[in-house]
Amino acid sequence: MRHWALIITAVVILIVAGLVLFLMRLQSELETPYYGAAGPETFVQIHRGMNTTQIAELLESSGLLRSRLPFLMYVRYRRMGHRIQAGEYHFTGPDTPRRIARRLIRGDVYFNSITVPEGLTARETFELLARNGLGDSSEMEKLFLRTDWIRDLDPAAQNLEGYLFPETYRFGRDADSPSILKAMIGQFSKRFTEILETHPPEPGWDVRRVVILASMIEKEVREKEEGPLVSSVLINRLERGIPLSCDATILYAMKIAGTYDGNLSKSDLKMDSPYNTYLHLNLPPGPICNPGADSLRAALKPARTHYLYYVSRNDGTHHFSKDLQSHTRAVNKYQKSLSRHGGTTN
Question: What letters, b where the CB count within 10 A reaches 16 and e where it falls short, cover 149-181?
Protein backbone atom coordinates (compact mmCIF):
# COMPACT_ATOMS: atom_id res chain seq x y z
CA MET A 1 0.00 0.00 0.00
CA ARG A 2 2.82 2.35 0.87
CA HIS A 3 4.32 1.55 -2.50
CA TRP A 4 1.12 2.55 -4.34
CA ALA A 5 0.72 5.64 -2.18
CA LEU A 6 4.21 6.74 -3.18
CA ILE A 7 3.45 6.12 -6.83
CA ILE A 8 0.17 8.09 -6.65
CA THR A 9 1.89 10.92 -4.80
CA ALA A 10 4.64 11.04 -7.40
CA VAL A 11 2.07 11.08 -10.22
CA VAL A 12 0.15 13.89 -8.54
CA ILE A 13 3.35 15.84 -8.06
CA LEU A 14 4.25 15.33 -11.71
CA ILE A 15 0.77 16.42 -12.82
CA VAL A 16 0.87 19.49 -10.60
CA ALA A 17 4.39 20.32 -11.74
CA GLY A 18 3.36 19.85 -15.36
CA LEU A 19 0.31 22.05 -14.84
CA VAL A 20 2.43 24.72 -13.17
CA LEU A 21 4.92 24.61 -16.02
CA PHE A 22 2.07 24.76 -18.54
CA LEU A 23 0.52 27.78 -16.81
CA MET A 24 3.91 29.47 -16.56
CA ARG A 25 4.40 28.94 -20.28
CA LEU A 26 0.93 30.30 -21.00
CA GLN A 27 1.68 33.32 -18.82
CA SER A 28 4.95 33.85 -20.65
CA GLU A 29 3.30 33.60 -24.05
CA LEU A 30 0.52 35.88 -22.87
CA GLU A 31 3.12 38.60 -22.25
CA THR A 32 5.35 37.90 -25.26
CA PRO A 33 4.87 40.16 -28.30
CA TYR A 34 4.43 38.43 -31.62
CA TYR A 35 3.80 39.46 -35.23
CA GLY A 36 3.83 36.96 -38.05
CA ALA A 37 1.68 38.74 -40.62
CA ALA A 38 2.84 38.86 -44.24
CA GLY A 39 3.11 42.66 -44.46
CA PRO A 40 3.98 45.64 -42.27
CA GLU A 41 0.31 46.14 -41.46
CA THR A 42 -2.74 43.94 -41.36
CA PHE A 43 -6.45 44.45 -40.84
CA VAL A 44 -8.75 42.02 -39.06
CA GLN A 45 -12.54 42.20 -39.23
CA ILE A 46 -14.37 40.91 -36.16
CA HIS A 47 -17.95 40.22 -37.17
CA ARG A 48 -20.94 40.33 -34.87
CA GLY A 49 -21.84 36.92 -33.51
CA MET A 50 -18.32 35.47 -33.67
CA ASN A 51 -17.42 33.41 -30.60
CA THR A 52 -14.06 33.54 -28.85
CA THR A 53 -12.77 30.42 -30.57
CA GLN A 54 -13.52 31.84 -34.02
CA ILE A 55 -11.90 35.15 -33.05
CA ALA A 56 -8.78 33.38 -31.75
CA GLU A 57 -8.55 31.29 -34.94
CA LEU A 58 -8.84 34.45 -37.05
CA LEU A 59 -6.12 36.22 -35.08
CA GLU A 60 -3.85 33.20 -35.34
CA SER A 61 -4.40 32.73 -39.10
CA SER A 62 -3.76 36.48 -39.60
CA GLY A 63 -0.35 36.15 -37.98
CA LEU A 64 -1.20 38.12 -34.85
CA LEU A 65 -1.04 35.19 -32.39
CA ARG A 66 1.67 32.54 -32.30
CA SER A 67 -0.88 30.28 -30.65
CA ARG A 68 -4.55 30.83 -29.95
CA LEU A 69 -4.47 29.11 -26.54
CA PRO A 70 -3.01 31.93 -24.37
CA PHE A 71 -5.53 34.36 -25.83
CA LEU A 72 -8.43 31.94 -25.29
CA MET A 73 -7.40 31.08 -21.73
CA TYR A 74 -7.03 34.74 -20.80
CA VAL A 75 -10.36 35.82 -22.29
CA ARG A 76 -12.28 32.88 -20.86
CA TYR A 77 -10.65 33.05 -17.42
CA ARG A 78 -11.52 36.74 -17.19
CA ARG A 79 -14.99 36.05 -18.65
CA MET A 80 -14.53 38.83 -21.18
CA GLY A 81 -15.44 37.03 -24.39
CA HIS A 82 -18.91 38.62 -24.56
CA ARG A 83 -17.34 42.07 -24.28
CA ILE A 84 -15.27 41.80 -27.46
CA GLN A 85 -16.58 44.41 -29.89
CA ALA A 86 -17.18 43.89 -33.58
CA GLY A 87 -15.32 46.03 -36.10
CA GLU A 88 -12.15 46.28 -38.14
CA TYR A 89 -8.86 46.37 -36.24
CA HIS A 90 -5.51 47.61 -37.53
CA PHE A 91 -2.21 46.03 -36.47
CA THR A 92 1.24 47.28 -37.44
CA GLY A 93 3.69 45.26 -35.38
CA PRO A 94 4.30 42.85 -32.51
CA ASP A 95 1.85 42.83 -29.66
CA THR A 96 1.00 40.51 -26.79
CA PRO A 97 -2.14 38.35 -26.64
CA ARG A 98 -3.16 40.20 -23.48
CA ARG A 99 -2.95 43.63 -25.12
CA ILE A 100 -4.71 42.36 -28.23
CA ALA A 101 -7.57 41.04 -26.10
CA ARG A 102 -7.85 44.35 -24.28
CA ARG A 103 -7.91 46.24 -27.60
CA LEU A 104 -10.80 44.09 -28.81
CA ILE A 105 -12.67 44.64 -25.55
CA ARG A 106 -12.12 48.42 -25.69
CA GLY A 107 -13.42 48.45 -29.24
CA ASP A 108 -10.28 50.16 -30.50
CA VAL A 109 -11.47 49.73 -34.08
CA TYR A 110 -9.80 51.33 -37.07
CA PHE A 111 -11.20 54.61 -38.37
CA ASN A 112 -10.03 57.19 -40.84
CA SER A 113 -10.59 60.45 -38.98
CA ILE A 114 -11.16 63.70 -40.86
CA THR A 115 -12.27 67.18 -39.86
CA VAL A 116 -14.45 68.98 -42.38
CA PRO A 117 -14.27 72.71 -41.57
CA GLU A 118 -17.18 75.12 -41.69
CA GLY A 119 -17.77 77.11 -44.83
CA LEU A 120 -16.60 74.70 -47.51
CA THR A 121 -18.75 74.28 -50.58
CA ALA A 122 -19.91 70.77 -51.39
CA ARG A 123 -17.31 70.44 -54.16
CA GLU A 124 -14.55 71.65 -51.85
CA THR A 125 -15.74 69.06 -49.33
CA PHE A 126 -15.58 66.31 -51.97
CA GLU A 127 -12.02 67.30 -52.83
CA LEU A 128 -10.99 67.29 -49.16
CA LEU A 129 -12.51 63.85 -48.58
CA ALA A 130 -10.92 62.36 -51.70
CA ARG A 131 -7.48 63.78 -50.80
CA ASN A 132 -7.74 61.93 -47.51
CA GLY A 133 -8.65 58.64 -49.12
CA LEU A 134 -12.37 58.87 -48.43
CA GLY A 135 -14.82 58.36 -51.25
CA ASP A 136 -14.42 59.10 -54.94
CA SER A 137 -14.67 62.74 -56.00
CA SER A 138 -16.28 62.00 -59.38
CA GLU A 139 -18.85 59.72 -57.78
CA MET A 140 -19.61 62.32 -55.10
CA GLU A 141 -20.12 64.92 -57.83
CA LYS A 142 -22.89 62.71 -59.22
CA LEU A 143 -24.35 62.09 -55.76
CA PHE A 144 -24.40 65.87 -55.26
CA LEU A 145 -27.77 65.85 -57.05
CA ARG A 146 -29.37 63.19 -54.82
CA THR A 147 -31.95 65.57 -53.39
CA ASP A 148 -34.15 62.62 -52.41
CA TRP A 149 -31.75 62.17 -49.48
CA ILE A 150 -32.80 65.56 -48.05
CA ARG A 151 -36.39 65.75 -49.25
CA ASP A 152 -37.68 65.67 -45.68
CA LEU A 153 -35.44 68.64 -44.84
CA ASP A 154 -35.70 70.70 -48.00
CA PRO A 155 -38.28 69.62 -50.61
CA ALA A 156 -37.14 72.43 -52.93
CA ALA A 157 -33.43 71.56 -52.86
CA GLN A 158 -31.63 71.35 -56.20
CA ASN A 159 -28.57 69.64 -54.72
CA LEU A 160 -26.92 68.79 -51.39
CA GLU A 161 -25.25 72.17 -50.89
CA GLY A 162 -25.70 73.35 -47.31
CA TYR A 163 -26.55 69.96 -45.83
CA LEU A 164 -23.12 68.33 -45.50
CA PHE A 165 -22.50 69.22 -41.89
CA PRO A 166 -18.95 70.36 -41.00
CA GLU A 167 -17.70 68.07 -38.27
CA THR A 168 -14.96 65.62 -37.32
CA TYR A 169 -15.89 62.21 -38.71
CA ARG A 170 -14.50 58.73 -38.26
CA PHE A 171 -15.01 56.44 -41.23
CA GLY A 172 -14.02 52.82 -41.66
CA ARG A 173 -11.99 51.62 -44.65
CA ASP A 174 -15.12 50.22 -46.27
CA ALA A 175 -16.97 53.57 -46.20
CA ASP A 176 -18.01 54.41 -49.76
CA SER A 177 -19.13 57.74 -51.22
CA PRO A 178 -22.87 57.26 -50.55
CA SER A 179 -22.36 56.21 -46.93
CA ILE A 180 -19.99 59.14 -46.30
CA LEU A 181 -22.39 61.75 -47.68
CA LYS A 182 -25.37 60.18 -45.93
CA ALA A 183 -23.44 60.31 -42.65
CA MET A 184 -22.83 64.04 -43.13
CA ILE A 185 -26.48 64.66 -43.99
CA GLY A 186 -27.52 62.63 -40.96
CA GLN A 187 -25.25 64.74 -38.76
CA PHE A 188 -26.81 67.92 -40.17
CA SER A 189 -30.30 66.63 -39.38
CA LYS A 190 -29.26 65.65 -35.84
CA ARG A 191 -27.49 68.90 -35.01
CA PHE A 192 -30.12 71.13 -36.63
CA THR A 193 -32.87 69.40 -34.64
CA GLU A 194 -30.90 70.04 -31.44
CA ILE A 195 -30.43 73.71 -32.35
CA LEU A 196 -34.15 74.15 -33.04
CA GLU A 197 -34.94 73.12 -29.46
CA THR A 198 -33.39 76.38 -28.19
CA HIS A 199 -33.63 78.49 -31.35
CA PRO A 200 -37.10 78.02 -32.88
CA PRO A 201 -37.51 79.68 -36.30
CA GLU A 202 -39.53 82.84 -36.86
CA PRO A 203 -42.82 82.46 -38.76
CA GLY A 204 -42.19 82.03 -42.48
CA TRP A 205 -38.68 80.69 -42.02
CA ASP A 206 -38.38 77.07 -43.14
CA VAL A 207 -35.23 74.93 -43.10
CA ARG A 208 -34.21 76.04 -46.59
CA ARG A 209 -34.33 79.76 -45.85
CA VAL A 210 -32.47 79.28 -42.57
CA VAL A 211 -29.70 77.26 -44.24
CA ILE A 212 -29.31 79.78 -47.08
CA LEU A 213 -29.01 82.65 -44.61
CA ALA A 214 -26.67 80.64 -42.38
CA SER A 215 -24.42 79.86 -45.35
CA MET A 216 -24.08 83.58 -46.10
CA ILE A 217 -23.29 84.33 -42.46
CA GLU A 218 -20.69 81.52 -42.46
CA LYS A 219 -18.83 83.06 -45.39
CA GLU A 220 -19.05 86.65 -44.12
CA VAL A 221 -18.05 86.11 -40.48
CA ARG A 222 -14.70 85.17 -38.98
CA GLU A 223 -15.47 85.97 -35.34
CA LYS A 224 -18.50 83.91 -34.30
CA GLU A 225 -19.66 86.66 -31.92
CA GLU A 226 -20.47 88.76 -34.99
CA GLY A 227 -22.74 86.12 -36.50
CA PRO A 228 -25.97 87.46 -34.92
CA LEU A 229 -25.02 91.02 -35.97
CA VAL A 230 -24.43 90.08 -39.60
CA SER A 231 -27.64 88.06 -39.45
CA SER A 232 -29.50 91.15 -38.26
CA VAL A 233 -28.14 93.26 -41.14
CA LEU A 234 -29.22 90.72 -43.75
CA ILE A 235 -32.67 90.26 -42.22
CA ASN A 236 -33.19 94.01 -41.82
CA ARG A 237 -32.37 94.47 -45.51
CA LEU A 238 -34.71 91.63 -46.49
CA GLU A 239 -37.55 93.20 -44.52
CA ARG A 240 -36.96 96.59 -46.14
CA GLY A 241 -36.65 95.23 -49.67
CA ILE A 242 -33.00 96.27 -49.98
CA PRO A 243 -30.61 94.07 -51.99
CA LEU A 244 -28.42 92.02 -49.68
CA SER A 245 -25.31 93.00 -51.66
CA CYS A 246 -23.30 90.15 -50.22
CA ASP A 247 -19.93 89.58 -51.85
CA ALA A 248 -19.86 85.94 -50.79
CA THR A 249 -22.80 85.07 -53.03
CA ILE A 250 -20.97 86.47 -56.07
CA LEU A 251 -17.84 84.52 -55.15
CA TYR A 252 -19.99 81.37 -55.08
CA ALA A 253 -21.45 82.22 -58.50
CA MET A 254 -17.93 82.68 -59.85
CA LYS A 255 -16.83 79.33 -58.39
CA ILE A 256 -19.80 77.63 -60.08
CA ALA A 257 -18.88 79.31 -63.36
CA GLY A 258 -15.20 78.43 -62.92
CA THR A 259 -14.12 82.08 -63.19
CA TYR A 260 -12.97 82.75 -59.63
CA ASP A 261 -9.22 83.42 -59.41
CA GLY A 262 -9.08 84.65 -55.82
CA ASN A 263 -10.05 88.24 -56.61
CA LEU A 264 -13.30 90.15 -56.73
CA SER A 265 -13.51 93.29 -58.87
CA LYS A 266 -16.22 95.89 -59.32
CA SER A 267 -17.04 94.45 -62.75
CA ASP A 268 -17.83 91.12 -61.07
CA LEU A 269 -20.65 92.84 -59.14
CA LYS A 270 -22.55 93.03 -62.44
CA MET A 271 -22.27 89.29 -63.07
CA ASP A 272 -25.41 87.81 -64.58
CA SER A 273 -26.26 85.16 -62.02
CA PRO A 274 -29.24 84.42 -59.74
CA TYR A 275 -26.66 84.38 -56.93
CA ASN A 276 -25.78 88.03 -57.56
CA THR A 277 -27.39 89.66 -54.54
CA TYR A 278 -26.39 93.10 -55.81
CA LEU A 279 -28.76 92.72 -58.75
CA HIS A 280 -31.47 90.48 -57.27
CA LEU A 281 -33.60 91.05 -54.21
CA ASN A 282 -34.14 88.46 -51.48
CA LEU A 283 -32.01 85.45 -50.64
CA PRO A 284 -29.99 83.66 -53.31
CA PRO A 285 -31.60 80.54 -54.82
CA GLY A 286 -29.69 78.15 -52.59
CA PRO A 287 -27.00 77.81 -49.90
CA ILE A 288 -23.51 78.99 -50.87
CA CYS A 289 -21.60 76.68 -48.52
CA ASN A 290 -22.10 74.23 -45.69
CA PRO A 291 -22.63 76.25 -42.50
CA GLY A 292 -21.72 75.18 -39.00
CA ALA A 293 -23.76 75.26 -35.80
CA ASP A 294 -22.84 78.83 -34.84
CA SER A 295 -24.03 80.23 -38.17
CA LEU A 296 -27.24 78.22 -38.00
CA ARG A 297 -27.92 79.64 -34.53
CA ALA A 298 -27.17 83.16 -35.77
CA ALA A 299 -29.60 82.72 -38.66
CA LEU A 300 -32.32 81.52 -36.31
CA LYS A 301 -31.66 84.12 -33.63
CA PRO A 302 -30.29 87.37 -35.08
CA ALA A 303 -29.38 90.30 -32.86
CA ARG A 304 -32.05 92.98 -32.53
CA THR A 305 -30.47 95.96 -34.26
CA HIS A 306 -31.21 98.70 -36.78
CA TYR A 307 -28.01 98.01 -38.71
CA LEU A 308 -28.25 97.95 -42.49
CA TYR A 309 -24.56 97.89 -43.43
CA TYR A 310 -21.26 96.39 -42.39
CA VAL A 311 -17.73 96.70 -43.70
CA SER A 312 -14.57 94.79 -42.90
CA ARG A 313 -12.01 96.40 -40.60
CA ASN A 314 -9.42 94.12 -42.22
CA ASP A 315 -8.69 92.40 -38.90
CA GLY A 316 -11.40 89.75 -38.99
CA THR A 317 -14.08 92.03 -37.51
CA HIS A 318 -16.63 94.41 -39.03
CA HIS A 319 -17.90 97.92 -38.48
CA PHE A 320 -21.70 98.11 -38.47
CA SER A 321 -23.78 101.14 -39.49
CA LYS A 322 -27.45 102.11 -39.38
CA ASP A 323 -27.45 104.52 -42.34
CA LEU A 324 -25.63 105.05 -45.62
CA GLN A 325 -23.85 108.22 -44.50
CA SER A 326 -22.24 106.48 -41.51
CA HIS A 327 -21.44 103.49 -43.65
CA THR A 328 -19.73 105.62 -46.30
CA ARG A 329 -17.50 107.14 -43.64
CA ALA A 330 -16.61 103.65 -42.40
CA VAL A 331 -15.81 102.47 -45.92
CA ASN A 332 -13.52 105.46 -46.46
CA LYS A 333 -11.83 104.76 -43.15
CA TYR A 334 -11.31 101.02 -43.46
CA GLN A 335 -11.27 100.38 -47.21
CA LYS A 336 -9.56 103.48 -48.62
CA SER A 337 -6.44 101.70 -49.80
CA LEU A 338 -8.15 98.46 -50.84
CA SER A 339 -10.37 97.17 -53.55
CA ARG A 340 -13.46 95.30 -52.30
CA HIS A 341 -12.88 93.28 -49.17
CA GLY A 342 -16.12 91.47 -48.38
CA GLY A 343 -19.20 92.52 -46.54
CA THR A 344 -22.18 94.65 -47.42
CA THR A 345 -20.49 97.83 -48.51
CA ASN A 346 -22.92 99.39 -50.98
Answer: bbeebbeebeebbbbbbbbebebeeebebeebb
